[in-house]
Design goal:
Number of strands: 3
Structural class: mainly alpha
CATH superfamily: Winged helix-like DNA-binding domain superfamily/Winged helix DNA-binding domain
Strand order of the largest sheet: 1-3-2
Largest sheet: 3 strands, antiparallel
Helix content: 55-70%
Oligomer: single chain
CATH topology: Arc Repressor Mutant, subunit A
Number of domains: 1
Number of helices: 7
CATH architecture: Orthogonal Bundle
Strand content: 5-15%
Radius of gyration: 18 Å
């Protein structure tokens, strides 16, 4: 069954509204931090496991030079380490350092606590329903041809590791 044009238009509006709200919450979460939202996003993807920088750039939807600057900054802060890829000496593998693992856990804990505070009037069922719906939406969007060309965006949380 297909989604009606009016319903799709409402959904687009709600997605953009959600993006704005998430940016506001992200701004709250990054105040006073040594890593801004962009660096936290990179840290999050690096936290999924050692990976080539080019793969990370594809996953994040950024150019290699942009990612290289982010990785250099995170490396300077001691949160990531790089090493040559044993399969291709020209490529580099990027991973979290022990302090990067701690930093990511701290970020995730802070985000979780912030969201819990903002959703005090929600029930556990409300939150579970929202999580299922957002997961279904993300999965549907991931399966489009455009999403496939941008690379996988599957994520896990630090708590799942």
């Amino acid at each position: 069954m297909s989604v009606a044009p009016n319903t799709a238009a409402k959904l687009v509006y709600q997605i953009f509204d959600l993006q704005r709200a998430v940016r506001c919450v992200a701004a709250i979460n990054t105040r006073g931090q040594d890593t801004g939202a962009a660096l936290q996003g990179v840290l999050r993807f690096v936290g999924e496991g050692e990976s080539r920088a080019t793969h990370l750039a594809e996953r994040l939807g950024v150019s290699a030079p942009v990612l290289s600057r982010h990785i250099a900054e995170l490396e300077e802060q001691g949160y990531v380490v790089r090493r040559p890829d044993p399969e291709d000496g020209r490529a580099q593998l990027v991973a979290l350092s022990p302090s990067g693992v701690e930093k990511l856990r701290s970020i995730e804990h802070h985000r979780t606590a912030t969201l819990q505070g903002l959703l005090q009037d929600w029930t556990e069922d409300d939150a579970e329903d929202a999580a299922r719906t957002l997961n279904k939406l993300a999965e549907s969007l991931r399966t489009t041809a455009r999403a496939k060309t941008a690379g996988s965006t599957t994520t896990t949380t630090v708590a799942e590791e």
